[in-house]
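Revision sheet: structure tokens.
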Amino acid sequence: MRKFIAVLGALVAAPLLAQTTPAPAPAPAPTPSPAATPAGPPLPRVAIETTAGRFVVEADTKRAPISSGNFLRYVDQKRLDGITFYRVVKVDTRFGFVQFGTNGDPAKTLPPIKHEPTTLTGIQHLDGTLSTPRLRPGTARGDFTIMLGDQRPSMDADPSKPGDNAGYAAFGHVVEGMDVVLKIFDAPVSKTGSIRGAFKGEVPVAPVRIVSARRVK
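Predicted:
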């Protein structure tokens, strides 16, 4: 922030002391710096232990409170323990996404949440971004994706497009262990396997399981 300091340097000489050198004006007092804005509490982080290794994600509860809050409820209620990375979409080398979550299991799935588009949160689908997939806007529940590579603009909201243009709801990113996510992404997928008739060619041969998901203190 720029400081603008006004210097007042008027010197007044008395008529009878014209021969006297006037004393310099006192230096102006510096403008005080504004008080620093408190940084606030750090964003919550979650350590996810999997059969392929450990990675850590950070949920942006400030910009995407609904989506982040939903994810943290699944973590805090231990609903992600034992679930798998059941879908791997490989568009190219290190480009696509992995998907994990309750996969419709009624015993683990919470009610749906309101959709938070990227146009509202400002969080884009970049490499390592954590996001919530859905069918129609407002149907997202307990499934989550992690981006491999920059997935803009295909997964971001785009109001200029017709129809359903609200995209996925990005709400966080991987801060440690992206190599583990890449290992999950690179694992073999079945060419014929599917889940309830969906995701053909995207189902891992040996799905990676989440052992535990806990907040990092």
